[in-house]
């Protein structure tokens, strides 16, 4: 599996609070954009992977873009926890000879669509019974619960969370495709922002976005003949810890040691690299607090040190670990983390709008706090 | 009132529960009660004022039946005694399908809490900011029940000054009937 497959094409639509086209149309545009980037004809596509929450079925995308006979298709659960796993499944399928050209994608109109938590009729069984009646209605409430405990146990401060929000916003201010391209963030704005669920404020929350993204995965051999510099899938992993409960992960021994730890163990086992070898990271950021937790989980610092890690500009360009260089879910677009994959590819091609000089390794992670996944990419 | 489309339960789960000692299954009988033991079409999903009622599944129904009697009980393994929450079909430690429901003291400590602000569902927005807490049970610190700290069993969700909330603060369970047949545990500060 190590370095057996590569991402050779990336594509995306514009990002906005509201796009007029349908999710299906956006999906097709992103997929065709990625295939064009790769220089591969749609008729050669024989594998698809997406999220269980993706509403456009493979059959719709395949027949619209003119895919050939498809021999592998897979969908991964748990919302943003599945982002990296879509690429991982394609890489595994290609490495084992089940397919040759794979497309992963996510299309979502979360900006103009309804907020999922407003739906009182379609609830997941655990929250519907054990948490929602008490007013833990939204993902932000569920993660804020862990955040307050995290702050209490380890001295993580709002300034640490601000460091995450600021790094993402600064990178978005360099990225014309980002929704927050022209919207700088200051510490005063952050500290005086309205609460959403204390201890999390407006700027601790990701954006609400319409948009779609896709990427193309082929074998490392074939990648050498493609149009762009290949980005190798060096290692990949999914993670669901023992006694894990999803976003309401309140009933295990240590709710603050989440799926990132499980995925990380497998990710590093399968890699020739260590955390200190990572040049740039794209860490899933639906909420700021997920970043310091993930930094701990993936081994960039010790337990409880994620907040302190963010100090001194560590997450900025030139810092210890430049973060979410396209702006992330907090400031570029929130499309269940797929923009983090494409930005990881851009960094290793040397084409990011906030390029880390000579970046040759990039960690990309999926949603923490739910069953998750991660990719270690290298050029 | 809207019904919950996912509810497929048609009988009383407690009566299906195997008991190793051959004693009647733990849990109240089904005589005339609605709410948690109602079959799908009768199940209410919101209280009269629009708060979300718990939507029991087969495994969780006994918890709500006991709550309606003012008892806080947690599922435990009838073979190895391990407490488990949320309820589930078998024991993750010894894999036994036999269970019993153990009465808790109702004492615990606040493990964490949040103060949600709008946008929220209307019934919750009206009381925002309110508190939602996780309470570690004294008998089983790994079991952290979600709930609300209130000034009295039937008081509003925002009836306690948030400044009085502290991680580690001792609390005790009381019971509040959200709708006919549906009772939830709530929490009072031991030192208000």
Topology:
The complex is a heterodimer of chains A (379) and B (192).
Chain A: E1 5-12, H1 23-38, E2 47-51, H2 58-65, E3 72-76, H3 83-95, E4 102-109, H4 125-130, H5 139-154, H6 158-172, H7 187-191, E5 195-198, E6 200-201, E7 210-219, H8 220-223, E8 231-239, H9 259-269, E9 280-282, H10 290-297, H11 306-309, H12 328-331, H13 338-349, E10 361-365, E11 372-378
Helix pairs in contact in A: 1-2, 9-10
Chain B: H1 13-16, H2 61-68, E1 73-77, E2 99-103, E3 107-116, H3 122-125, E4 132-137, E5 140-147, E6 170-179, E7 182-189
Antiparallel strand pairs in B: 1-2, 3-4, 3-6, 4-5, 6-7
Molecular structure report:
The complex is a heterodimer of chains A (379) and B (192). Chain A has 13 helices and eleven strands. Chain A has 379 residues and is an alpha/beta fold. Chain A is 32% helix and 17% strand. Residues 1-41 of chain B have low confidence and may be disordered. Chain B folds into two domains: 1-103, no CATH class; 107-189. Chain B is globular and about 45 Å long. Classes of the chains: A alpha/beta (379), B mainly beta (192). Chains A and B meet through helix 4, helix 5 and strand 5 of A and strand 3 and strand 5 of B. Strand 5 (195-198) of chain A pairs antiparallel with strand 3 of chain B, so a sheet runs across the interface.
